[in-house]
Design goal:
87 residues; mainly beta; six-stranded antiparallel β-sheet; 45% strand; globular
Length: 87
């Protein structure tokens, strides 16, 4: 899928949440995988600074537009929905 966001938007691939017990045992997935409020920036619109390709970002819950492509899910977000860049 070749998507180029326009305007002040970015395309993010959300990171999945692994469910673990307190002792560190990873639990098997029960149905749909959950996504967190973090993701990797995979495409940029007309953004001159702030965010770069490959940045790991933290964004507002329930924000953006979900785009699905066979086995991958992406979000198109406004730059203002990005709360932090994770270093």
């Amino acid at each position: 899928m070749n998507i180029k966001p326009i305007g002040n938007r970015i395309l993010v691939e959300p990171l999945k949440i692994e469910e673990k017990t307190f002792s560190g045992i990873i639990l098997p997935s029960s149905g749909e995988a959950k996504s967190s409020n973090t993701g990797i920036v995979v495409a940029l619109g007309n953004i001159k600074d702030k965010v770069n390709l490959g940045d790991k970002v933290f964004f507002k819950p329930h924000s953006g537009v979900i785009i699905s492509n066979s086995d991958k899910t992406f979000l198109i977000l406004e730059v203002e929905e990005i709360l932090a860049i994770i270093k």
